Amino acid sequence: MAKKEVGQLLAVLDEAYSGPAWHGPCLRGALRGVRSDEAAWRPAPGRHNIWELVVHAAYWKYSVRQRLAGGERASFGERGNNWFARPVEAPGAGSFAKSQKAWRDDLDLLASQHWQLREAVLHIKDAELDQRSTDSRFTPRRLIAGVAMHDVYHAGQIQLLKRLAAEASLRS
Fold it and tell me: 41-65: b or e for each residue (b if 16 or more CB lie within 10 Å)?
C-alpha cells in the first residue's frame, strides 16, 4: 500500500531541514559556513546563540521521534531538556580548533537526529497519522509537521543572528 501522506510529510520535513525550500534557507542551509566563534556569539547577555539553537532543534527532533515511538524514552545524551548551554567551555587562547570540533559534533548531532526522525516517520502508516497515542495530546501528523515548522522558524532566527553578528563585528 502506498504511503502518500507519509511521503508528503517526509518531503516537508526534508525541505525544512535540507531544502531546497521556496521560502529561503532551510535549517541546514542557514548553518552552512558558520564557524564556532560565529555560532557562539550572543546578541545580548542571556540570549540564545546559533549554537544553542542547533542543539535545541536536535533535541526536538529527538523528542518527536520518541513521541512517535511511544513507550520508554531513551536518553538524548545531554543533561536537561529543551535548551543546552553552548559553547560548553569559555573561549580562550588556543581553543579555536577544540571549539570548531565541538561545533561540528553538534552539527552532526542535528543531522543524526534528523535522519533518525526521518527513519521513524518512514515506519508510520497513513492510517496512523491522525491517531493520538494515549500519552500524547498530538497526532503523529501534527508532531511531524510541527517539527518541520520548528526547523523553518529557527532557520529564520539563525539568519537574523548571522546578520546581527556581522553588524556587531563591523562596529567593533
Answer: bbeeeeebbbbbbbbbbbbbbbbbb
Mean pLDDT to the nearest integer, 50-58 = 97
Domain presence at residue 77: no
Binning pLDDT at 50, 70 and 90, where does residue 21 land?
confident
Distance CA 108, CA 54 (A): 10
Task: Tell me the Cα Rg of the chain.
Answer: 17
**How many distinct structural domains can be found in the chain?**
1
User: What CATH number has the domain bearing residue 47?
Assistant: 1.20.120.450
> Could you tell me if residue 152 is inside a domain?
yes
Question: For residues 158 and 54, what is the distance between their CA atoms, to the nearest angstrom?
Answer: 9
Residue 75 counted as domain residue: no
Q: What share of the chain is helix, strand, coil (3-state, %, to 5)?
A: 60, 0, 40
Boundaries of domain holding 26: 4-70+82-171
- Per-chain mean pLDDT for the chain: 90
